[in-house]
Amino acid sequence: MARLVMKFGGTSVANVERIRNVARHVKREVDAGAEVAVVVSAMSGKTNELVAWCREAAPVYDPAEYDAVVASGELVTAGLLAIVLKDMGLNARSWQGWQIPLATDAAHGAARIESVDGARIIAGFAKGEIAVVAGFQGVHAETGQVTTLGRGGSDTSAVALAAALHADRCDIYTDVDGVYTTDPRVVPRAQRLDRVSFEEMLEMASLGAKVLQVRSVEVAMVHNVRTYVRSSFDDPADPRLGTLICDEEDIVEKQVVTGIAFSRDEAQLTLRKVADKPGVAAAIFGPLAEANINVDMIIQVVSDDAATTDITFTVPGAEFDRAKALLESRRDKIGYTALQGTPDVVKISAIGIGMRSHSGVAARAFKALAEKGINIRAITTSEIKFSMLIDEAYTELAVRTLHTLYGLDVKA
Ligand code: ASP
Ligand code: MG
User: Fold this and answer.
1) Ligand 1: which of 7, 47, 216, 219 to mutate, most ligand atoms within 8 Å of CB?
2) Ligand 1 test: best mutation among 39, 102, 154, most atoms within 8 Å of CB?
3) Per the structure, how many domains does the chain have?
4) For residue 73, which atom of ligand 1 is closest to its CA?
5) Quick one: 185 and 288 in the same domain?
6) CA nearest 349: which of 376, 387, 402?
7) How far apart are CA 149 and CA 110, in angstroms?
8) Considering the domain boundaries, does residue 105 fall inside one?
9) Are residues 164 and 239 in the same domain?
10) CATH number of residue 331's parent domain
11) Beta strands, E only, 125-258
12) Residues 214 and 360 in one domain
């Protein structure tokens, strides 16, 4: 008998009518003989509303109580789906995080899962019961307080539950029908991928594709959970195909480039003429790390006078002002002649496991962008991806150019 976890995001459970539609998807799998655990998000917009209420209640609030508030959205949808399933004549019950229990650490607001006990849900399967699980939440064992997993965390709930239940698959139902070669709003000729490897998906999710919470892909990779991204807006009686995220070994045709991701949430900073001597990089990046500012790309130019050098790096767009202020305040300690920077940059990345065995992949991109007159400000590479920082104004042109270059356009 197949065992499935089915996860439905906020837009899929936005109102009772949509919850009824979700129930039809569940019924299809149950009728086909599967044991099913369903994981639900809060109704779309609900979590934002709850977060706003916390802020309104007090400018500084106890993160544990924030979790108590924001975890409530998922309780509502889990209860409602169980009611609807029962009304359809199915056997179902809802589960809150602490009832399972899904145990996490104490990092309220961004807790990490420590263990998921599948025993009670599996006992329910033996009685023919569908488990309807509130996503996004867990419990800290020592304090008994409710925790949440960070925004978008119900994807991670679902994958972790699938691992604990030894499910055959984790189906993530969302408002798109899969993972695309790039954002279809930017490139209309983007295609849905049939399969993508865990590693590629991890890169795509961290580099700007927003289909899944990054953490959920990490959990899927570690536990080898076959994760299927598909649309909840399909006819429940006749669903279409989605994208399977799976082990590399299950992918027969390994593409050199599988997808193009981009992130506008980047800012560039450059320090001119810093001393070219040991300890300078530490003097710059140590304080940034202490201030919890994530540095991504770093380029240090080889100096021509052997005395000074230029260092360029990127930080998240939202941290631009803070990073700048911090470096200005340390100008004397670091020693530089000028601090320059702009938030108007975008990081464009090409990802593909085939890059491991092909050379010259990035060089083709550099040439193609040069032919369009696009200047590359910074480059980084790793085993299965390379990223380029360019002016934000050229985002569309660059993404389209690379998409075509690597043969990703859907055939007309
Ligand atoms: N409801 C939570 C959020 O909006 C968790 C989720 O939907 O995955 O972030
Ligand atoms: Mg989501």
Assistant:
1) 47
2) 154
3) 2
4) 1
5) no
6) 387
7) 5
8) yes
9) yes
10) 3.30.2130.10
11) 130-134, 137-140, 146-148, 169-174, 195-197, 227-231, 243-246
12) no
Q: Which of ligand 1's atoms lies nearest the C-alpha of 9?
A: 7
Mean pLDDT within 193-215: 90
Res 76 pLDDT > 90: yes
Percentage of residues in the chain with pLDDT exceeding 70? 100
pLDDT band at 252 (very low <50, low <70, confident <90, very high): confident
- Per-residue pLDDT tens digits for 378-403: 999 999 999 999 999 999 999 999 99
Q: Residue 304: pLDDT above 80?
A: no
**pLDDT at residue 408 greater than cutoff 90:** yes
Kindly report the length of the chain: 412
How many angstroms is it from 137 CA to the middle of ligand 1?
A: 10
Write the residue with the smallest CA distance to atom 4 of ligand 1. 47
Number of the ligand 1 atom closest to the C-alpha atom of 155: 8
pLDDT class of 255 with cuts at 50, 70, 90: confident
Q: Identify whether 92 is part of a domain.
A: yes
CA dist., res. 127 & res. 110, Å (int): 34
Closest CA to ligand 1's atom 5: 152
For residues 191 and 304, membership in a common domain is answered with no
In a domain, 115, yes or no: yes
Tell me the CA–centroid distance for residue 186 and ligand 2, in Å. 20
Question: What's the domain range around 197?
Answer: 3-248
CA dist 405 to 174, 191, 388, Å?
30, 15, 15
Residue 206's pLDDT is 83
Both 38 and 129 in one domain: the answer is: yes
From 387, 24, 361, 351, select the one nearest 179 (Cα to Cα): 351
Residues 142 and 236 in one domain: yes
Q: Can you give the pTM of this predicted structure?
A: 0.90
3-state secondary structure of 111: coil
Same domain, 67 and 100: yes
Q: Is residue 254 assigned to a domain?
A: no
